[in-house]
Amino acid sequence: MENIDKLYEAILKGNLPLAVEMTKMAIEQKMDPKSIIDNYMSKAMDEIGSRFENGKAFVPELLMSARAMKGALELLKPMLANSDIPRAGTIVIGTVKGDLHDIGKNLVASMLEGSGFEVINLGVDISSEKFAASVVEHKANILCLSALLTTTMNYMKEVIRAIEAAEIRNQVRIMIGGAPISSAFAKEIGADGYSSNANAAVSVAKQLLAV
Amino acid sequence: MTSKETVLQSLNHKSGGRIPVDFGATSVTGIHCRVVEALRRYYGLENRPVRIIEPFQMLGEVDEELQKIIGVDVVGIWGRQNMFAIDETRLHEQVTPWGQTVLVAEGIDLTPDKNGDVYIYAKGNRSFPPCAVMPEACFFVNAIERGGAVDDENLSVSDNLEEFGYISDEDLSHFAREADKAAATGAAVVAAFGGTALGDIAFVPGMGLEQPKGIRSVPEWYMSTVLRQDYISQIFEKQTDIAVENYRLLWEKIGNKVDVVFTCGTDFGTQTSQFCSVETFNELWLPHYKRMNDWIHQNTSWKVFKHCCGSIVPLIPSLIDAGFDILNPVQINAKDMDSQRLKDEFGDSVTFWGGGIDTQKVLPAGTPGEVREHVRKQCGIFGKNGGFVFNSVHNIQANVPIENVVAMIETLSELK
Ligand code: B12
């Protein structure tokens, strides 16, 4: 079993082939998927996330770790689907209408996925109707909105209005982020959470759902 | 003093002159076409279609009338083709999805499809899939990534060099004509000759190519700056070879009719950090930048302009080492980018071309009074001892309040 330790390193270093190989081995050894995720994957994403937050790792390194993590997670997904292992929660994420920046949003999505959330990434330029419909369809616990432009950040208000109009506001927590966003703005528009980076986004999400 | 002299004095860090102003000379110091139209209306100028000078960001031409009103000291010269490799010398009238009549390159059709999206095709050639889209209710264009997954076994550096080539006689003559016209205005002249940006993420998808090959996806490119450093370095090496040869030809033909060359718009900063470490920058980018800039300084009178968004304080010493004379847009609202600190630490070695007005809070959301106060403060800090060309932090976006833009313009003219 000790070889599996390399899974942590593989994800931390962003080595996709090694991460896949190690995960296959773990599955063959009948390791519990939840413990693979908690003890190796999430830990590695935690570490790279905190290096990123502290300016010790950068966008390329985080992208590489995220890709390795996803490679491993793909292999575990069928097992998770067929089991009653509880996931941390379901999250719908997207960049709001009129905005096409997606690097940061995708990193947030990866960090959340790597820490055990089920993540539905809708992409960029997403309308309020689409966000609301997706929250309903996936019974999402959290809705994450990203905006990088001052010209699009106000659209977040519209999304929140659409969620209220669909009468699902009390079922979903809303988190927002992106370069021009601040916690004051989050408060002003009635969002539940904000973070300035992908790493802190995970703790905010966990706090919101108390997991 | 002429506009050109004012700019040169500031670029040479000499005090005494007034603060020179740029709006519209480059693709990173411009004004969105909606705001150009609103300004023309505000100042009672003739109602006519605004010319789209840069169709990716939908920047409008700051025409001679507006240049006068704003007090612009710099004019730009642009290539014969835009980033979609579409001819910019033949224009036609089109209506944008937001209902504005504009003059845009003939190869661009702004009619939306049934979903409200506008598609653009490389070289205007519709027999290949579109290279870019302006989605419904968007005010600018987004690249469409084509080319699929990277096959490392068959990856060849030439795949990522397809868009970079030696300058044609036609382009040389075009630039010579444009430089003559621009120099005759008495303003300082900035040129973007193209092809010299090293790894600018906006250009990585290859929007001017019908069938881009190589690494064309944004995340794959960023990862390659770690995973495939050799490959990237070879691209930069070859690009620099081409750039130097092109600059030699351009200098022979145009000489000091051009004052500033805008060579590279690669962004190294995010709101709170950098896209790479100082070590990676020094290894992967700096040697190539230095070779290009050294050649320019040893052989021409041109100053070199570098655009780089975000929080970049740790990288500024390396950018200066690499030989850049001018930094833009000076994103004073990003982490650690305090104006006074930038001026104190780097103001003697580099010119700040930008940072005149914050575009994340003040310009879009402040009051006209706040705009005035802020512009005065920024000019007070950056304008000391030259080394400053006034411009907003990056292009003025589509829906900023026109009264704030006017407050900025009026404050600038008061400062004169
Ligand atoms: C890279 C970049 C681009 C790339 C985008 C590529 C892509 N596929 O995304 C390109 C070159 C295409 C681009 C284009 C434009 N850009 Co741009 N771009 C940037 C830049 C330099 C970095 C953004 C980035 O990717 N950062 C890296 C990631 C990791 O950080 P992040 O996005 O901030 O995300 C982190 C946090 O914010 C947070 N977060 C993000 N989303 C969320 C969501 C939730 C729920 C949570 C909790 C957290 C969270 O976590 C992330 C990870 O830590 C910024 C500069 C800046 N200061 O941010 C300008 C910037 C955002 N761009 C700007 C502009 C204006 C544009 C343009 C409109 C054109 C223009 N210049 O006129 C075009 C628009 C075109 C388009 N097609 O959308 C301006 C916006 C100014 C304003 N007034 O708001 C900026 C600030 C630059 C500047 N100097 O002013 N851009």
Write the layout of secondary structure elements.
The complex is a heterodimer of chains A (211) and B (416).
Chain A: H1 5-13, H2 16-28, H3 33-53, H4 59-81, E1 90-95, H5 103-114, E2 118-121, H6 128-138, E3 142-146, H7 155-165, E4 173-177, H8 183-189, E5 193-194, H9 198-209
Parallel strand pairs in A: 1-2, 1-3, 3-4, 4-5
Helix pairs in contact in A: 1-2, 1-3, 1-4, 2-4, 3-4, 4-5, 5-9, 6-7
Chain B: H1 3-11, E1 31-32, H2 33-42, E2 50-54, E3 59-60, H3 64-70, E4 74-77, E5 91-95, E6 101-105, E7 118-120, E8 132-134, E9 142-143, H4 169-184, E10 188-191, H5 218-227, H6 229-254, E11 260-264, H7 278-299, E12 303-307, H8 316-321, E13 326-328, H9 339-346, E14 351-353, H10 362-365, H11 368-382, E15 388-389, H12 402-415
Parallel strand pairs in B: 2-6, 4-10, 10-11, 11-12, 12-13, 13-14, 14-15
Antiparallel strand pairs in B: 1-3, 2-3, 5-6, 7-8, 8-9
Helix pairs in contact in B: 4-6, 6-7, 11-12
The structure holds cobalamin (B12).
* Strand order across the largest sheet of chain B: 4-10-11-12-13-14-15
What order do the helices and strands of chain B follow?
HEHEEHEEEEEEHEHHEHEHEHEHHEH
End-to-end CA span of chain B: 13 Å
The name CATH uses for the topology of the largest domain in chain A is Rossmann fold
Radius of gyration of chain B: 20 Å
CATH architecture identity of chain B: Alpha-Beta Barrel
Bound molecules: cobalamin
Which oligomeric state applies? heterodimer
Helix count of chain A equals 9
Uncertain segments of chain A: none
Strand order of the largest sheet of chain A: 2-1-3-4-5
List segments of chain B where confidence is low: pLDDT < 50 over at least 5 consecutive residues.
Answer: none
- State which percent range the strand residues of chain A make up: 5-15%
The number of strands of chain A is 5
The average pLDDT value of chain B, as a whole number, equals: 97
**Structural domains of chain A: how many:** 2
Which secondary-structure class do the elements of chain A indicate? alpha/beta
Structural class label of chain B? alpha/beta
- What summary fits the major beta sheet of chain B? 7 strands, parallel
* Mean of pLDDT of chain A: 94
